Amino acid sequence: MKIRYPGLLAEKLPSGAIRYRVRVEGDKARRIPLSVTPDHPQFVEIYRAARGGVTLAPEATPEERAIRYSIGWIAAKHLAAMERDVEAGATSPLTLKKRAGVMKVLTDRYSDYAMKMPQAKLIALRDEFNATPARADSIIEGVRSMYRWACERGLCEVNPAVGIGRIDPGKGGAVPWSSDDLRKFRIRHPAGTTPHLCLTLLMFTACRIGDAIWLGRGNETTVQGVQALKWQPAKRGSAEVTIPMLPPLHRATRAAAVQGKTYLLNSKGAAFSTPDSLGNMFRRWCGSAGLQGRSAHGVRKAAGHLLAQEGCSQYQIMTIHGHTQAQTSEIYTKGVERWKMARAAMAALEEMDW
To answer: How many structural domains are present in the chain?
Structure first.
């Protein structure tokens, strides 16, 4: 299909080269020369700018292309700063990817709006996604973080996202796996398969899926004569984790037909490129085992609950999960400890002369 660009002029020069110019819309006498040809990846963007009377350089950054002090400008500056943080190891690539998605939603609608946008516009943006409340709240949280970043650097004075309420009631997060769930998965995916290895790795390390994609033999070590796994979780603020490598995990890592730098390999024998790619595959493995609604994070939660039921303290669970705040691990021990206290209290009533 031939694509037409209104106002685009292709002029052959004496040298034989083709020069492209664009008539400015509403001003036919004004013509802006283009610095790129139609096969350039930024051609459409540069052409549209020229139609609007703006000369755009092909190598201009998103920040340079945006209207100064607009929503598009501050969003571009924020993402550029996050990219630098990723390079410095201060922010995870997954966090950047999620924030970029939020910025796209925002700039698709309000790119040319003044940075000091009314809060009502953000509330309308949230309500636009009320069919998916978790995503709606995530968008507002991302915008709130962008403005907080901008305010800290003196780029703006007011954060219009502050005070906007959540609309997602929440469902308690990922569903923890039961013993029956674990059994069904292992029946469908026996030892030696990648799904079995993945479940074993998640269960016997309680690692996040973002760490599961790169854990491998390079993380194996020996501590006081005991074979162990040692790694620094990718999630910002997590503590380093060092745990014994139990026999089930050791067997599973050695049972795979193809071995690589990482424990988990995709169908092509390469490491999974992103946590999302492994997460999507894990959900397929769950589906084939009849475990709809289960996820990799649910295995991590199951490990926490089982540790608590076996009598592990809140602080012991912290060391395995890489938590640095006690209240984060409290969700696993609170119910168990309350039951133990309740049993002890009721035992005291047993001896009453009633």
So the answer is: 3
